[in-house]
UniProtKB/TrEMBL annotation:
Pfam families named among the record's database cross-references: Cyclin (PF08613)
Matching SUPFAM superfamilies: Cyclin-like (SSF47954)
Protein name (Swiss-Prot/TrEMBL): Cyclin
Taxonomic lineage from the root: Eukaryota, Viridiplantae, Streptophyta, Embryophyta, Tracheophyta
Domain of life according to the entry: Eukaryota
Keyword Cell division: yes
Species annotation: Rhynchospora pubera
GO molecular function, one term: protein kinase binding
Keyword check for DNA repair: no
Keywords, ordered alphabetically: Cell cycle, Cell division, Cyclin
UniProt cross-references to InterPro entries, sorted A to Z: Cyclin-like_sf (IPR036915), Cyclin_P/U (IPR012389), Cyclin_PHO80-like (IPR013922)
Length: 218
């Protein structure tokens, strides 16, 4: 896998018939989360996550017997989310950790965080998406549980769901570095307006995004 291949995959919006294999971003994101979990579980041994009720809602009493990659592939198989959805979900999970220092992504909450962030990202990125009850079935939850997780997720992120082209590009670059042996692989930037609706380049020039808005918690 190369950064160039990943970049091509991230910007593709192919039809269901044209896409049968999971996008490469799934493998990259799964690898990144696995390392994050390993690091977090060593760092918080004996302490656990925050007792905040909204954070605790994402905790499961047992670890799901399914790898992160298998779980993401299941979501892709049934939700047919486009590759950019997973990048935006990654942005949301990073923001969630930034805004809530007591939240650590571990094996007991990662699956619930993923299905919630992917569902919310799908609503932001795509014009057509499945209802909460369908995503709940994909994630092995009841509709009421996922509705509650979505509400907690929104409050924990302060309803900050907008992802500008520059921030999207930054996170794409971070994912590219995950598969770049040389590091900092430079490629052409060509994000379409599809990603962020009516946001235009002139507005971006007037209100440039700060590079410090994301802390790479993951």
């Amino acid at each position: 896998m190369s950064p160039r291949t990943l970049r091509s995959d991230l910007y593709s919006f192919t039809s269901e018939e044209e896409r049968t294999a999971p996008p490469l971003v799934i493998s990259v994101l799964a690898s990144l989360l696995e390392r994050t979990i390993s690091r977090n579980q060593r760092g918080i041994a004996g302490n656990g996550n925050s007792k905040d009720e909204r954070i605790a809602a994402f905790e499961s009493s047992s670890v799901l017997d399914m790898s992160i990659q298998s779980f993401l592939e299941r979501v892709f198989r049934y939700a047919h989310a486009a590759p950019p959805v997973y990048v935006v979900a990654y942005v949301y999970m990073d923001r969630l950790c930034q805004f809530n220092q007591g939240l650590h992504i571990v094996s007991t909450n990662v699956h619930r965080l993923l299905i919630t962030s992917i569902m919310v990202a799908s609503k932001f990125v795509e014009d057509l998406n499945y209802c909460n009850s369908y995503f709940a079935k994909i994630g092995g939850l009841s509709t009421a549980e996922l509705n509650n997780l979505e509400m907690n997720f929104l409050f924990l992120t302060g309803f900050r769901l907008n992802v500008s082209p520059s921030i999207f590009e930054s996170y794409c670059s971070h994912l590219e570095r995950e598969v770049s042996f040389g590091g900092g692989y430079q490629i052409e930037r060509c994000l379409r307006n599809y990603m962020c609706g009516v946001e235009i380049a002139s507005k971006e020039r007037k209100r440039p995004e700060s590079k410090n808005q994301f802390a790479r918690v993951l």
